[in-house]
Design a protein that fits this description.
Layout (H helix, E strand, L loop, with lengths): L6 H27 L6 H21 L20 H10 L5 E4 L10 E4 H20 L3 H36 L9
Length: about 180
């Protein structure tokens, strides 16, 4: 994207990101309810990957600047604790992991919980979606972009690495076949 995005460019980007956000939130809620069954981890990997694509689009765009440098109120964000609890119950075997918070500044690992990361991302995304649903696409983009760089991008990246590592370890750790004579 160019440094001078037109309102049409912003609206198109906001629509694309809102679609990714809706898909992520719906997927997360479905897995938290247990709808993913044995496919919960691959489904989460897919959902996180898709929302990271939206984040990359925000990161590659020019800075979104609000006209008065002010964010209108959207009201209280929904309580996502039931989603967090549902994910925690379904991810018990892989919920806790370690990560380097900033690979350029940190050398120590930090303990993370996958269920917390996934819901932290959702919390930031739903806030922007509320702007979008109130016909304020520029405010939605501003929030999504700001919170991508400041918060949810890191948690989504960490969650993606944890999900990928779990699946890779599961799929690559195959028992050797019995030798046949």
């Amino acid at each position: 994207m160019s440094d001078t995005n037109s309102p049409q460019d912003w609206n198109a980007l906001a629509e694309r990101v809102a679609c990714h956000v809706d898909n992520y939130l719906n997927g997360l809620e479905a897995v938290a309810r247990g709808d993913g069954g044995a496919h919960a981890i691959p489904l989460l990997l897919l959902e996180v990957s898709q929302v990271i694509l939206a984040g990359a689009q925000l990161g590659a765009s020019a800075d979104v600047i609000l006209p008065d440098n002010w964010e209108p109120e959207v009201g209280d964000d929904p309580d996502l604790d039931a989603v967090r609890q549902g994910l925690s119950e379904r991810l018990v075997a892989l919920d806790e992991y370690v990560e380097v918070f900033d690979p350029y500044k940190d050398t120590e690992t930090t303990s993370y919980r996958l269920s917390d990361d996934l819901v932290d991302v959702a919390s930031d995304l739903v806030h922007g979606l509320r702007h979008y649903n109130q016909d304020r696409p520029l405010e939605a983009l501003w929030w999504w972009q700001y919170s991508y760089f400041n918060h949810w991008g890191n948690h989504a990246g960490a969650a993606l690495r944890a999900l990928h590592a779990f699946l890779a370890n599961t799929r690559l750790d195959v028992a050797p076949e019995a030798a046949t004579a």
